Amino acid sequence: MEVASRLLSELFPSRCILCSQTVESSVENNAVEICRHCYNKQPFNAACCVQCALPLAEDSANNTLCGRCIRKRPDYDYAHSIFRYEEDIIGLVHQLKFSEKITYASSIGELLLSAYDSADVLKKEVPDCLLPVPLHPERLRQRGFNQSIEIARILSKKRSLPVELSSIVRRRSTPSQTGLSAKQRQTNIRGAFEFVSKMPYKHVLIIDDVVTTGSTVNELASLLKKNNIERVGVLSIARAPVRN
């Protein structure tokens, strides 16, 4: 099997999904089809709010809270995003969500695994399950897949974490959050999710591709807390900076 796999990789070498060059030195392993050069130049979310992972100024001190979290803490207990939602990361996520590049889900899932393994809080405690942000059935039919579920599968398999798909549904088909202000997003998403069966968990990790204002994941976290989930985290590929 290894010989066959090696032969196939030589005959059909992987190409970086960002620059299209042959992937000779991939990130971590060959499962991520992004060359090391492209990976290293991405906008890592190193300086961010310790509560919600909102990108902050590069010279911000460690363990800093953003202004939003100082005024009002979110309903989730922690958040981690490996990248800022900028540059190539925007295109990569758009290719998956809107251009039906479902094949990208594997590489993005591996990046999510990298985000999971680099989160300090997740090195200390293991969540009981992964909760991909649910899509409304109408949106699911249009897109054909839920990108949050697809990228969560890698993390589920590699870290032996169950994926919760049946306890919470999206009852209300909300207009797209794109272009809405933070306040408009909060109003738009309010009451969109509903518990349909009890969760046998105490610590749930919400999975999303991109967290913009945090309204969607916060609405989910609020619902979870109201239904006796003690601890809620958020893990995403990217976190958007505050728009001017």
Report the CATH architecture of the largest domain: 3-Layer(aba) Sandwich
Give the amount of beta strand, in percent.
5-15%
Number of strands: 6
In the CATH hierarchy, the third-tier topology of the largest domain is known as Rossmann fold
How is the main sheet built?
Answer: 4 strands, parallel
> What structural class is derived from the secondary structure elements?
alpha/beta
Query: How much is the average pLDDT?
Result: 85
Poorly predicted residue ranges: 1-9
Lateral strand order in the biggest sheet: 1-6-5-2
Percent helix among the residues? Answer: 25-40%
**For this structure, what is the CATH class of the largest domain?**
Alpha Beta
Helix-strand pattern: HHHEHHHEHHEHEEHE
Q: First CA to last CA: what distance? A: 53 Å
Radius of gyration: 18 Å
How many domains is the backbone divided into?
2
Shape: globular
Annotation field: number of helices: 10
Describe the protein.
This protein is an alpha/beta fold and 244 residues long. The chain has helices at 2-11, 36-40, 67-71, 87-98, 104-118, 120-124, 137-143, 147-159, 182-189, 215-226; strands at residues 78-84, 129-132, 168-170, 193-195, 203-211, 231-239. Helix 5 crosses helix 8 (147-159). The protein folds into two domains: 14-43, no CATH class; 48-239, Rossmann fold.
